[in-house]
Amino acid sequence: MMETVPAAGPEAVVSRPGPKRAAGAPNGTSLHGEILAKLRDYVVEGNLAAGARIPERQLCEMLGVSRTPLREALKVLASEGLIELLPNRGARVRSLSEQDIRELFDLVAGLEALAGRLACEIITDDEIAEVERLHHQMYLFYIRQDMHGYFEANQQIHRRIVEAARNEALSLAYAAYTGRIRRIRYAANLARKRDRWGEAMREHEAILDALHRRDGLALGDVLFLHLRNKQAAAIEHLADAQRADS
Length: 246
Fold this sequence. Notes:
Number of helices: 10
Shape: globular
Helix content: 55-70%
Strand order of the largest sheet: 1-2
CATH topology of the largest domain: Four Helix Bundle (Hemerythrin (Met), subunit A)
Order of helices and strands: HHHEEHHHHHHH
Number of domains: 2
CATH superfamily of the largest domain: GntR ligand-binding domain-like
């Protein structure tokens, strides 16, 4: 995760420039891919407030790059729905209202439920083994209270299930909408009124169990409930943030 220090406003970013190649990154990882991954994590993990302008100069200093590769990465994040590009005025973090959260989570929940039902018809033993490996990896991150690692493993599990459905139209729809809730999906784990991490781990145990049994109906139901619970936590977190701002 990139290092920052608290600043006076939500748009201010002060940090040390990062290396052009992340430590431990695969040799085949491109500079563009590294910048994009770091920038995506930075936005998803709430380092800029919803609606905040993207401070390009400070981010260039932090990443150790010029504005051209930064702006290319911003275009990708805009296509994913994480930020909005403003004509001749840079970019800002996308804001979601409570109604947006309800609608988008319900849509993604429906897509994941369908993916679960389809995947159970054709998923291979190797694919199930990979989901189980990611599940155990996610559990270790949970034990260590490593939110960054936990979230990445969590998202990989959901993507693998969607990919196992082998339905291109479904995959495209899922990619189009899941990016828009990626930031609030991360923030839902921080809801103060519930142990969302613990809830999510128990739900993922049920997901893995249904997958092992290739029970499409059960997997679809638990995935839908999982997203509904995440939705409730995301709305709680949004309300807490709005109260803090006011």
